[in-house]
Hints:
This protein is of the alpha+beta class. Helix content is about 40%, strand content about 20%. About 35% of the residues are buried. The mean pLDDT is about 90. InterPro entries: DUF6969.
Amino acid sequence: MTVAVADKRRRQTAARTAIDRMTTLARDGASVVSAVMGDAAEPGEWTHYPPRDARDTASGYRFFYHCHRDMPAAWGEHGHFHLFVRAGAADADEREPLTHLVALSVDARGLPLRVFTTNRWVTDEVWQPAPDVLDALDGFRVAPPTAELLAVADWLAATTVLLRPQIERVIKARDQRLTDLASRGPRPNLLDDRRLHVLTSEPVSLADSVAALDT
Length: 215
């Protein structure tokens, strides 16, 4: 089996998982957004959902969902998920700093709209180069304590596999953009430049990604 065929089959399996989790939530009148927000009727700006994030102490992965008004209005998002991995050994102290993997913007129904990356200061992360981030993303998996959050975690893990081509492009483009900016002249503290928030982004469509796998 070629690498391309194996990758396609992995993404097809991920597509089935993502759709299954969305369907399961929909049967209960829920979505990945309502499931992750719990009892909150409307999201509070900058508030993390779930509180204190969804964490997996064994693997070091975690995620949270939130929204804030300074995101581009043209995206039409309800909010976005931030995915992280603990920077350090898997059994390290839970308070150890994190590395941001990728962010996923969704609409009010929980359908993916865009994948994007942010500058280091946004998440106060331990910065790692694109190859290391992509390697870490391969194992993304969170086992939260409730069934609804588990459905969201499974959906996120599957969606990152399904959208892997777009995610790879934005993460690699992130590093290239910073390299290009640095080459234009002295840019001290580029990773902490508050003028640089979202570094790279790309629109995505769950339906288009699934359809592309059938061609």
